[in-house]
């Protein structure tokens, strides 16, 4: 697996190329995130990216970068966007660029063993980098799909698929379900195979890694993909899998 910090920087560059080419009308167009314009999506990414490496990130508790009376992460993020929406597109883009392009270096600067508080959990800097890659990739779908802009899948999806599989126990626990061992055998964008988990697990998910990542990002339902779930808990795992915090 390539270094996630290098891949995070590459994901930012790919998204930046898209954003730099948007017209004013496209910035104000509806995105795939319900109730948000494209500008709102980029504002959200800027707001969350600004929290990386701040004292709040390295602190304790639920993450001081989420000041809100909202009871869910999504609601808190919506409150933050609503409080600052309306800025010109060029300033939103400049704000995101300043925060995003600093993130790989910031995360690389932490010494081994550092734990960072992010939302409601404690992560290593590299796992936090993986979550930032996953979020930017997911929101890139919200921007490009409605606008009909090409955003090619890359081998950076490996990090996102790993995250989705790695956090399945958490997804089961949030749903009040006992954990279940799941093996994933996925086809990468270049046609190679990526596997995660014990091959002897009673549950197995197979199919395109791109579909698996989109299901984990809630951009597709399992039924909208060609993924196959085999085993007593595999379909439930596919329903619950996610590569984001909520």
TrEMBL record:
Which SUPFAM superfamilies does the entry mention?
DinB/YfiT-like putative metalloenzymes (SSF109854)
Q: Where is the Mycothiol-dependent maleylpyruvate isomerase metal-binding domain?
A: 8-143
What keywords are assigned to this protein?
Isomerase
- Which is an annotated GO molecular function term of this record? metal ion binding
InterPro entries, A to Z: DinB/YfiT-like (IPR034660), Maleyloyr_isom (IPR017517), MDMPI_metal-binding (IPR024344)
A Pfam family for this UniProt protein?
MDMPI_N
NCBIfam families, alphabetized = maleylpyruvate isomerase family mycothiol-dependent enzyme
* Protein name from the UniProt record: Maleylpyruvate isomerase family mycothiol-dependent enzyme
Supply the source organism for this entry: Actinomadura physcomitrii
